[in-house]
Amino acid sequence: MRASNMTKLILLLSIVWLASSPRIAFSLDGDSESGERIYLKRCGGCHGVDGDGLGPGSERLVPPPRDFTSGMFKIMSTAFDGYIPQDQDIYEMIRIGMPGTAMPGWEDILDEQEMWDLVAYIKIFPGFDEETAGPAVEYGEPIPSSAESIEKGRELFLQDDRCSECHGKDGKGDAIKRLLGDNGERTWPRNLTKPWTFRHSNDQKDVFTRISVGIPGTQMPSFADPGSKKMLSVEDRWHVANYVKSLAKIVRVVNPENTVIKSLRVEGSVPAEVDDEIWEQAIPSSFFLVPQIIAKDRHFTPSNDTITVRSVFSADEIAILLEWDDRTESLPGDEDAQKIADPEVLYQDMVSIQLPITVPEGMEKPYFVKGDTENPVNLWQWASRTTTESQNTSLVKAAGFGTETELATNSLAASGAYENGTWRVIFNRNLTTESIDDLQIQEGIFIPIAFSAWDGSNGESGTKNTLTTWYWIILESESTALPCIGALIALFLVIGLEMLWLRNSARRRDPAT
Ligand code: HEC
Ligand code: HEC
Description:
The structure is a single chain. The protein has 513 residues and is of the alpha+beta class. It has 12 helices and 16 strands. The protein has 3 domains: 28-73 and 82-122, Cytochrome Bc1 Complex, Chain D, domain 2; 147-246, Orthogonal Bundle (Cytochrome Bc1 Complex, Chain D, domain 2), CATH 1.10.760; 254-509, Immunoglobulin-like. It has helices at residues 3-20, 32-42, 44-47, 87-96, 112-122, 147-158, 164-167, 204-213, 234-246, 335-340, 389-392, 485-509, and strands at 179-180, 186-187, 260-265, 285-288, 290-291, 306-313, 317-325, 350-356, 377-383, 393-398, 405-407, 413-419, 422-430, 447-454, 466-467, 471-475. 38% of the residues are buried.
């Protein structure tokens, strides 16, 4: 190959490499005048025309839109004692937004140049256009993830309670600490097993950056600060990042396409304990819990966000296992729970399963919150009371909000176990009962099912709770025939629309932290 061809090839290869490498984005020169025009149209509504965070859309947003004049940036890669973010940090924030807050990502709406123009403009509010940012964090040589690195990271995470002090022993954010942000607002250490709740991402490099810089404005500290007794070397920070990354609980990730819980047939009797081995065979299905905002009192600051369901059945019984993360056991009288309760009134943790009393024909379903007069529902409820087991369980009939009547529990029983930030609650019932107010459970048909949860230490009780829309449960007999495809498509459409509506209204009213 001739030299010039060689050069061309190398050039071509580097272009291909750069184009295919998503981490490398070149900083473009931003034009702040163009940035101002875009800002007034797209950002001022929340961040205010003067950048003070007081736009008309800022009301009731938790957390509130940033006041740019304060010069505080949470997600940045400037080495620990610097306070000015790298331009690239602001750019990335505008591009992908801040999940879990009202801050949207703009990459589908604005082009690269427009986003750089915004970077140039936003820097004017705190006067950062006149200053230079300090150096970015030193990354050294990244250490690839491996079993050893993860184990090393786990030791460092737990050593002197370095991270577990706030994030809990298993990283579920369940340490007993009352944390406040710089503006006095309540904040929670992230549940590191749920990467979808991260404000930025759980990429190894991003976690490394957060560990190195901390999250300004919150109590998440920098572990590159030489003044800190818990400081970590660059190498150790990579190990911890690998450990954090390894915590993501894949089985509890919501798959929006899965709308059916498959109950597994077992020989003999169904388990009555949450840690029975049989649960490992049952297929887990996870669903989003969204705050209840339809009836008063509405709920805007939920803490529970997903619930995982498994089920098995025998010739005459069914068992349903519910699992969700919750920072506290919320037992009234429990001092630990009281310490972080918000507000300081402490309610119980609760969970309920909602089922129609009569399985509807075709695609009809009862109103999804507590049913309606024509389609009453059963609520199987469990509460974290300390008193006798039987009082933990209740059976309720409802035909709309405020119509709840308590029934005799008949064969319904429930029990719960709390461990390291996770509740697991099991419900057992006979498939059929004598009562006309009970759902009679049959094999091989799609039965609508929905869930609600209450986090007592988060002030949740009554209508202040989180819930799912309707899904389906099916007891799979050998001969279970699939419903015809047309019906299935209609069914998914309905669920999709309901979910969309619920989530949109949640977002419109008040995005939660
Ligand atoms: C719907 C309201 C809303 C709109 C519209 C909005 N933001 Fe935000 N933005 C927020 C909220 C809320 C936060 C603060 C989150 C926090 O403090 O955790 C935020 C934070 C930010 C931050 C700070 C990030 C950090 O690392 O601390 C930047 C930068 C930002 N927004 C830029 C923009 C730009 C540029 C636009 C317009 C293209 C825009 N925002 C539009 C709500 C909004
Ligand atoms: C003093 C309490 C405290 C300690 C100690 C602490 N964190 Fe945090 N951490 C927090 C808080 C609070 C947040 C959430 C901040 C917010 O409101 O966004 C957080 C957030 C995070 C996040 C989320 C980043 C994102 O994108 O959302 C990660 C990752 C994290 N911490 C890792 C660690 C690791 C690893 C350690 C130990 C090396 C550690 N933290 C030590 C309080 C702490």
